[in-house]
Write a structure and sequence with these properties.
By secondary structure, this protein is mainly beta. Helix content is 5%, strand content 49%. The longest helix is centred in the middle third of the chain and has 11 residues, at 72-82. The radius of gyration is 21 Å and the shape is globular.
Length: 207
Amino acid sequence: MTTPPSLPAVAGLGWSRHKKPGFSTRVASHVSGREVRVALMSYPLYEFEAVYNGLSSAATSATAQAGLGASSLQSLMGFFLQLQGQFGTFLYTDPDDNTVTGQAFATGDGSTTSFTIMRSLGGFLEPVGWVTNLANVYLNGTRQTSGYSLTTPNTLAFTTAPGSGVVVSADFSYAFQCRFLDDQMDFEEFMANLWKLSSMKFRSVKP
């Protein structure tokens, strides 16, 4: 599977950022006041919103506003154009949610060789969108030096199935696989060569 491009890390990213996990639930209400609820999703989709307070269209660092870098506008706008708006997917590394250490996510049964890599948030365990770096793998806390491989986007495969009751854990980094929520993006030039993007919305997609 081809790795999607990553969202450019350009200067000018401002506050505030939004991150909204969401589920889909079907609710049928009765006249008695009782209701039946059916969960249509086991794991959430995340919606993000970012703001860029400053982007430079100047072609060189010498003429760009201090700290914004040369052609940061072209970098972000070009990325959006390459993905054709909502059509393409990309990887977003959340600054506050991208790396775990010693994350337990599966238990062996003696026959299963492939496991979906997951991370916990509070007490909730869910698959990660895309593993960007698999640093270490452990079986019952013992670091493994061989006998496993990573299959993108998020599958850990062993050559020999872990034994029954053996805890599988790992140190890894990850990103959210996302798409833009709009087919248009509104860039505003508020001074010569200085631009801003008041809202850039995107959401995670399931691999």
